Amino acid sequence: MSETPRLKAVLFDIDGTLVDSNYLHVDAWTRGITEAGESAQAAHVHEGIGLDSGKLLERLFGERADSDAVQRAKELHSEHYAASAERLRRFDGVHELFRAVRERGLKVVLASSAPQEELDMLLEVLDAGELIDATTNSDDVETAKPEPDLISVALQKAGVAAGEALMVGDTRWDVEAARKAGVDTIAVLTGGRGERELADSGAIAVYADVAELLRRLDESPVGARLRSPAGNDR
Asked: Which tens digit of pLDDT belongs to each residue from 26-44?
């Protein structure tokens, strides 16, 4: 029986996982869609949060996703979201979790498909530059979550293999993308998705938030992977 590879990195989604932004996205999308003369239920928008804007609009509008009105809604979303930047906040325990991960000899990698302008806003809110080893953004890939490309890029930037990393995310899109890339996911509930949905999509553990993950880190899959036979040399 082969040993589990030594854990070397933890990949983190940002929106809804580290920063309380998902419902600001829902608000910005619903306002933009309405102002563009279209209609979409907030619940349906929320289901697509975690996808890039193109995939989200395809889910909402199908073949009409490329119409002028829907593309205008995309522009308005960006405007409304940027205007809400002062309402973004970092979840409790993020800095402490990053430090705890690094103290255990692991890299911290932000695996986000946000466009660079949104990522800059999120990084300012996180205020954790010295604790982050690498980041991704939408410019790194042509296809975003739930395809595995972004996770693969995050692994490359970290310099680790899929079996040497774990993902932390808040949506099934995170879980599915990581699984396709060969990475297991720890999920948190702060993005507004239910525990059953996340577990059914393949999350190997679900916590209320990153603060709970921090408190239970050594008994979490992170701790378990560090205690595995291949991890005893850390």
From this structure: 999 999 999 999 999 999 9
